[in-house]
Write a structure and sequence with these properties.
Elements: E1 6-11, E2 16-22, E3 29-35, H1 39-44, E4 49-54, H2 59-68, E5 72-76, H3 78-81, H4 91-101, H5 115-147, H6 156-171, H7 176-209, H8 211-216, H9 224-234, H10 243-249, E6 254-259, E7 262-268, H11 274-290, H12 296-304, H13 307-327
Length: about 350
C-alpha cells in the first residue's frame, strides 16, 4: 500500500522559522516556531517527510541539509505560494500557505542547487555589481568633462582611451585639485576593470573543468558567461520536462491572456531568471549581427518580423538547444534535425 508522506510547510527567516504541519491521523494542526539553532535538530528527530519552502535566500542551503537527513524537499517559487496566503501577512499564515501550495497537483518546483553552482552564481552577481559601478563611474566622468566643453566618444574602450588627452587639455585651465580628483576617478574605473577581469578568469577555471559548460558553449551565441550562468542556474536539467518548458520558465515565450476560448498573445512574459534571459538575448543579437548561424528559418523570420522579435525567438531556440544538450548528454551539431514525433497506431 502506498503511503502519502507527511507534508511540512516551513517559512524560513534569519532567526525564527515557522513550521506548519497536520497530523495525518487526528487532523491536529501543529504550528511550531523554531529558533535558527534548533531548526535542524527538530527535523533530525522528525519522521521522514516532504518539506516545502519558498525558494528565497538561504533556501538551497537548508534544502541540502534536510536532504542529507533523508527528507524530501520542495522549493516553491514565491509567486506560486502567494495566492494561498489567507488573512494578514505573518509567519504563521506564510507557513500555512506553503503547506497548502506544496500539495497542489502540477505545482512547479525549483531544483535544489549544489554549493558549487551557487558559488558560480555568486561570482556572476558580484561581476554584475562591479559592471554597474563601472558604468556609473564612467557616466559621471562624461558629465563632468561635458561641463568643461569636452565630449567623450561613445563606448567604454574609446572613452578610456581618450581620457588622458582630455585631462592634459583640462590641466592647462582648471585647478590642480580637480584634475587630481578626476585622475583618481579614472583610476577607480581601471581598478574596476581589473576586478571584472579577475572574476572572469575565475569563471573560466570552472568552465574548463565543467563538461556541461563546454558542451553548450559550442552553440552560436553562447560564450563563457552564458554557459556558466546557464549550468549553474538550471541546476538539474531533468527538473524540466522539455526544452520548451525551460524556455518558458526563462520568460522567453509570449504571455497569454484569454477568456471565452479566445487567446491573445502579448509580449514575452519575462518570468524566471532575468540575468540568464538577458545573456541569451544579447547572445542572439550577436549572432544576428555577425550572421553566425544562417538558416532558412532565421532568414524567413528576419524577412517578416522586427529585429527584437527575431532576437527573442533565436534566444528561445538557444535555450531549448542548451537544455537538450545538457539533459541528453549530447554534443552540439549544426546540421542536427529532431526526429518527427511517433504516430500512435
Amino acid at each position: 500500500m502506498n503511503v502519502t508522506p507527511l507534508a511540512v510547510g516551513v517559512d524560513i527567516a534569519k532567526q525564527v522559522f515557522q513550521v506548519h504541519e497536520v497530523d495525518p491521523m487526528s487532523g491536529e494542526i501543529r504550528r511550531t516556531p523554531l529558533k535558527r539553532a534548533k531548526f535542524l535538530a527538530y527535523f533530525a528527530n522528525h519522521a521522514t517527510c516532504v518539506v516545502g519552502m519558498e525558494a528565497c535566500g538561504g533556501a538551497h542551503h537548508w534544502a541540502r541539509r534536510l536532504v542529507a537527513m533523508g527528507h524530501a524537499v520542495k522549493l516553491l517559487p514565491a509567486h506560486k505560494v502567494r495566492p494561498f496566503a489567507v488573512g494578514n501577512k505573518n509567519d504563521v499564515a506564510d507557513a500555512q500557505a506553503i503547506w497548502t501550495a506544496m500539495q497542489q497537483p502540477g505545482m512547479r518546483t525549483v531544483a535544489i542547487k549544489t554549493e558549487s553552482q551557487q558559488a558560480v552564481l555568486a561570482l556572476h552577481r558580484m561581476r554584475t555589481q562591479l559592471v554597474i559601478f563601472r558604468t556609473a563611474q564612467i557616466n559621471a566622468l562624461r558629465g563632468l568633462f561635458n561641463e568643461f566643453g569636452e565630449v567623450m566618444p561613445t563606448g567604454r574602450p574609446s572613452a578610456m582611451k581618450a581620457i588622458p588627452a582630455v585631462l592634459e587639455r583640462l590641466a592647462e585651465r582648471l585647478p590642480t585639485v580637480l584634475i587630481d580628483t578626476l585622475r583618481e576617478q579614472v583610476q577607480r574605473v581601471r581598478d574596476l576593470d581589473a576586478q571584472v577581469l579577475t572574476i572572469e578568469r575565475r569563471l573560466k577555471r570552472w568552465f574548463d573543468i565543467e563538461r556541461a559548460c563546454q558542451r553548450i558553449a559550442a552553440i552560436p551565441g553562447i560564450g563563457l558567461l552564458t554557459a556558466t550562468a546557464a549550468v549553474a542556474t538550471m541546476g538539474d536539467p531533468l527538473a524540466f520536462r522539455s526544452g520548451r518548458e525551460f524556455a518558458a520558465w526563462l520568460g522567453l515565450v509570449p504571455r497569454q491572456v484569454g477568456t471565452g476560448g479566445k487567446v491573445k498573445l502579448r509580449g514575452i512574459s519575462k518570468r524566471g531568471d532575468t540575468y540568464l534571459r538577458t545573456l541569451l538575448i544579447h547572445g542572439a543579437r550577436a549572432v544576428l549581427a555577425r550572421n553566425q548561424a544562417p538558416s532558412a528559418w532565421l532568414t524567413r523570420l528576419r524577412a517578416r518580423r522586427p529585429m527584437n522579435v527575431v532576437a527573442v525567438a533565436l534566444a528561445n531556440k538557444m535555450a531549448r538547444t542548451l537544455w537538450a544538450l545538457m539533459a541528453h548528454q549530447r554534443t552540439y551539431r549544426k546540421d542536427y534535425a529532431s526526429p518527427p514525433p511517433a504516430v500512435a497506431a
